[in-house]
Design goal:
Elements lengths: L3 E5 L2 H9 L21 H10 L6 E7 L2 E12 L4 E8 L9 H15 L5 E7 L3 H9 L3 E5 L3 E7 L1
Parallel strand pairs: 4-5
Antiparallel strand pairs: 1-2, 2-3, 3-4, 5-7, 6-7
Helix pairs in contact: 1-2
């Protein structure tokens, strides 16, 4: 079985990940905003640079030596010991195989054990039932919803 792990995102890994990226229609509430993804080196550099701050940790989801997704712990609040999990798989080839579930489990463990968080939040676009299923499967509990999103939380 191939090993799945979280690894800190580097610029090089970000480029490897996004060279084979495909946008997912399931995360767009407003389909007029959806368009197929086209790799552009300068855009990936801007994206990577924009995510470098102390309130966020970017991971690449690695399957053996291949990047297959991105996971972030963001909005890290060290005063209240909570953060928000965000995950996106590279394309449909890596969905429905348990990789996202395993990555979320690893991220929750990291947030609790390494960062000392007492709670991790997550949200999904209402129509993204696959993401909702995974979030609930790893132990997140429903908190609330609005017109566009469903919000979840898991506590230590």
């Amino acid at each position: 079985m191939e090993e799945l792990k979280l690894q800190r995102m580097t610029r090089e890994l970000c480029h490897k990940l996004y060279k084979e990226w495909e946008n997912d229609e399931a995360i767009y509430m407003d389909m007029s905003l959806f368009k197929p993804y086209e790799y552009a080196e300068d855009a990936v550099n801007r994206y990577f640079d924009s995510k470098q701050d102390s309130s966020r940790i970017m991971f690449v989801i690695m399957l053996s030596d291949k990047p297959i997704g991105e996971l972030q712990l963001k909005q890290i609040d060290y005063d209240n010991n909570e953060c928000t999990l965000s995950i996106h798989m590279q394309n449909d080839n890596f969905k429905g195989k348990g990789y996202g579930t395993k990555a979320e489990q690893l991220a929750i463990k990291y947030a609790f054990d390494e960062l000392g968080m007492i709670a991790v939040n997550a949200d999904t676009v209402k129509k993204n039932t696959r993401s909702q299923h995974v979030i609930e499967k790893v132990g997140f509990k429903y908190v609330k919803e609005d017109d566009s999103f469903i919000y979840y939380r898991i506590q230590r």
